[in-house]
Amino acid sequence: MDTAKDTSATSKGATPAGLEGVVAAQSSIGDIDGIKGILIYQGINIHDLARHSTFEEVVFLLWHGRLPKRAELDELKEALAAAQQVPEGVIEMLRRIPREADPMDVLRTAVSSLSFYDEDAHQTSREASLRIATRLTARLPVIVAAFDRLRNGKEPVAPKPELNIATNFLYMLRGEMPGEREARIFDVALILHADHELNASTFTGRVIAATLADMYAAVTGAIGALSGPLHGGANTAVMKMLLEIGSIENVEPYIKNALAQKKKVMGFGHRVYRTEDPRATWLRQFSREMGEAKGDLRWYEMSRKIEEVMMREKGLYPNVDFYSASTYYMMGIPLDLFTPIFAISRISGWTGHILEQYANNRLIRPRAEYIGPRDVPYVPIDER
Ligand SMILES: CC(=O)SCCNC(=O)CCNC(=O)[C@H](O)C(C)(C)COP(=O)(O)OP(=O)(O)OC[C@H]1O[C@@H](n2cnc3c(N)ncnc32)[C@H](O)[C@@H]1OP(=O)(O)O
Ligand SMILES: O=C([O-])CC(=O)C(=O)O
Fold this sequence. Notes:
With 384 residues, the protein is mostly helical. The chain folds into 2 domains: 38-230 and 340-359, Citrate Synthase, domain 1; 234-330, CATH 1.10.230.10. The protein contains 16 helices and 3 strands. It has helices spanning 46-52, 55-64, 70-82, 88-96, 103-114, 126-151, 165-174, 180-193, 200-209, 215-226, 234-245, 248-260, 278-294, 298-314, 320-330, 338-359, and strands spanning 30-33, 38-41, 44-45. Strands 1-2-3 form a 3-stranded antiparallel sheet. The longest helix has 26 residues, at 126-151. It starts with 29 loop residues before the first strand and ends in a 25-residue tail after the last helix. It binds acetyl coenzyme *A (ACO) and oxaloacetate ion. Belongs to the citrate synthase family.
């Protein structure tokens, strides 16, 4: 394996900032060709999955390394439906959380607390971990929708076991069934966000799992990592920016001004892609389609204009978080749920990577390149 540095205590090379380009694990879950703009899950091109697959099928693929046969998919759907019930203690806790709380913080806390009610918690065998992964994948959407309803003074809506995860989430959030096309767009959005190799949150999850801490600990850490604006938190920040810009005429001056001030424009740039992110291709199309369906193309058109200015000024492409923002906004989803929705999808990739880590584990413990002083004398406190 290609690694950046020697493991001996004395050999210290130049450390790539942010571990850029460092290969830190072997994985058969997914790969990215950042030059050609190709993303695969277990060898299957993301475009084929977006065209033909469902989120549930992708969950199976990420956990088992191959597409399910019909009976296996049915079995997974049944297991997910059977696992949807969130323990009453967690729902009680959600009722007591301040309404103003950030839903990502709520999700992080709720996922951590799920372990109290799971007899498999603290086990890392494949069988127990698959049961936990199933519970987490089934329960994250229920928790996010329940908190949104509670903070709006409404009772949570129970999931319908016959619905898929995408349709169920929109149903639980609104208390009414979404349209078929909207539910399919949401399902594809979940497919597109499911996995992305060793991104920051997945890496976090693997580092925690590699200590043989359990899956709840690893996923709680991964949610924390996803929440930051340089990672999954960017989708909410994109929509805030679009609302602040407000009109297509304001796009050019706003973006130029932000760049002149050396500010990051949310939803642009990527550590791996140097060309179009293949997921943005789909989400751009969904942003337009949802805008057309709602008779409001403003956010899509502003996004196109931002894209044009960013390409001209910085040569930067939109990432997965850019067009998901206006797509979800046109679905009427509150801004602060965009990142929890990312987690509802990425739980499949996180758990797949955690399973892979447990299966062939070694503690992840790199070295730091020490750049501080040495041989500094200890000065007693009264003499400093
Ligand atoms: C699901 C995801 O996590 S996708 C990423 C979501 N995050 C965002 O959209 C936040 C905005 N984007 C960014 O901050 C970055 O592009 C990241 C964090 C995604 C990648 O960061 P890095 O690989 O570390 O790139 P880095 O921040 O070093 O940027 C390289 C150069 O491009 C510029 N740049 C990168 N992204 C942006 C941006 N969004 N807006 C303006 N300039 C940018 C940097 O200022 C830097 O320019 P310089 O060399 O002149 O100083
Ligand atoms: O891969 C990354 O660095 C960020 C990420 O999670 C994604 O793009 O989906």
